[in-house]
């Protein structure tokens, strides 16, 4: 019998109840680059609704131009993708970054921060890619795993099998369905054939397990009302699906609906990104002591149709790698 391991994350409540740090004091002075970069990172993660959170790695350049009523700060930032999915309530400072062998994803972003008294306006455009391309990795390490598109038929079949195993063996009352594929890698394994390693997110639906409704017809709950499970697993051509490991993320909004309040919510998951912490003047991975408390998003309510398999903004990114979750430009073109 396959093993199902579930880890429930309850620490989010303590984070939500703790006092939020003040917004970085972004000014038009020459030494405000670190605060502006942290504000930009917060906005990028806040708007990034698929895949994984990003961490600031390096400030490559910055310029400040005086304009009427304030200034315009131009930044070039290098970010690295973390191991935390965007629905993970863990503070960004506690999210690990993958090693080179795990196929690191980076983003080079050009950001404009406009500062007017206490108000900020942010726009950005990012180039998201693998730190080492597939061709370069093949030359450096021919036996290392390669990243596959999220829509790869073989891995999608294994993932759907894993979702069925979860619904069959878990103690959850409601049915869960696949929300999105996080990442997929593949490589040849001696005595096991091709190996596939995948991460995916499931969302709670309105169907009870004892319901006769076919699972594909079940409606996911609104993202802030639903439990989520982020799972990792693997499979080989000779041995089939392996162990399933899942983390449980509780819903952010547990308030009952008001009298006559109608179900209404959008496709995008709520941001679980806390307010940006005060700048420490450092770049690179922040220390665990700089944890950022989380905040509640705007409450939403119950049901929503299944989210589209591809973020609409990705359609405009013609060169987007189908194995990645790229950062979409803001505002959208």
UniProtKB/TrEMBL annotation:
Span of domain Cystatin: 16-110, 140-252
A GO cellular component entry from the record: extracellular region
GO molecular function: cysteine-type endopeptidase inhibitor activity
InterPro entries: Cystatin_dom (IPR000010), Cystatin_sf (IPR046350), Kininogen_Fetuin_HRG (IPR050735)
Top-level taxon of the source organism: Eukaryota
Keywords per UniProt: Disulfide bond, Glycoprotein, Signal
Region (Disordered): 252-309
Signal peptide start-end: 1-19
Descriptive protein name: Alpha-2-HS-glycoprotein
């Amino acid at each position: 019998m396959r093993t199902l391991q579930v880890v429930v994350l309850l620490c989010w409540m303590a984070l939500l109840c703790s006092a939020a740090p003040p917004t970085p004091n972004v000014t038009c002075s020459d030494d405000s680059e670190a605060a502006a970069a942290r504000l930009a990172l917060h906005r990028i993660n806040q708007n990034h609704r698929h895949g994984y959170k990003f961490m600031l790695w390096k400030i490559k350049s910055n310029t400040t131009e005086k304009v009427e009523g304030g200034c315009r700060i131009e930044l070039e930032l290098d970010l690295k993708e973390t191991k935390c999915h965007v629905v993970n309530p863990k503070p960004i400072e506690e999210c690990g970054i993958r090693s080179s062998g795990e196929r690191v994803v980076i983003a080079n972003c050009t950001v404009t921060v406009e500062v007017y008294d206490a108000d900020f306006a942010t726009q950005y455009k990012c180039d998201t890619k693998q730190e080492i391309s597939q061709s370069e990795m093949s030359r450096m390490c021919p036996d290392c795993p390669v990243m596959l598109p999220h829509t790869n038929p073989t891995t999608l079949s294994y993932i759907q099998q894993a979702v069925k195993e979860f619904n069959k063996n878990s103690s959850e009352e409601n049915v869960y369905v696949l929300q999105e594929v996080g990442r997929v890698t593949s490589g040849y394994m001696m005595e096991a054939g091709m190996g596939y390693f995948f991460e995916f997110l499931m969302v709670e639906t309105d169907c009870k397990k004892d319901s006769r409704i076919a699972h594909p017809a079940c409606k996911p709950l609104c993202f802030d009302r639903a439990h989520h499970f982020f799972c990792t697993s693997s499979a080989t051509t000779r041995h089939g699906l392996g162990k399933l490991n899942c983390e449980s993320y509780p819903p952010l909004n547990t308030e009952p609906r008001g009298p006559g309040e109608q179900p209404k919510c959008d496709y995008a998951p709520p941001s679980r990104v806390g307010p940006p912490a005060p700048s420490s003047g450092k770049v690179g991975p922040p220390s665990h002591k700089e944890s950022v408390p989380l905040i509640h998003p705007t409450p939403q309510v119950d049901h929503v149709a299944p989210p589209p398999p591809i973020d609409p903004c990705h359609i405009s990114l013609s060169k987007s790698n189908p194995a990645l979750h790229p950062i979409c430009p803001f505002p959208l073109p």
